[in-house]
Specification:
alpha+beta, Arc Repressor Mutant, subunit A, 2 domains, 4-stranded antiparallel β-sheet, 4 helices
Length: 130
Amino acid sequence: MGIDDYMVKPIDLEELLLHVEALLRRAGITTSHKLELSSLILDADERTATLNGEEIPLTVREFNLLYKLLSYPKKAFTRSQLMDEFWDGETGSGPRTVDVYMTKLRQKFADCEDFEIVTVHGLGYKAVLK
């Protein structure tokens, strides 16, 4: 069954949007921008990280990097990919700047048993869920 089986042509975009939202609701897919591991909650709307109920202070860039890594567990990202996405071509920053941020994130989440940030030698970084 395709979309043609449910809708009359020409397609009303509002009706299509409502139909898609209903399908997502039924499938249990929400539009929440939260990543929840057992002890860690990252809320993209509020830009907060909470570990065991305690908020962990993060800079915007630290939050964005961590959210990206945890959104795609086991996927390795190169330093260049991360620089392109989160540094917007800022001059004066080299790819090793990413290493500094990963070190900070590892320190801040050293007590978190839900994930670890792994260095992929010769490539970059990935998050591995435990």
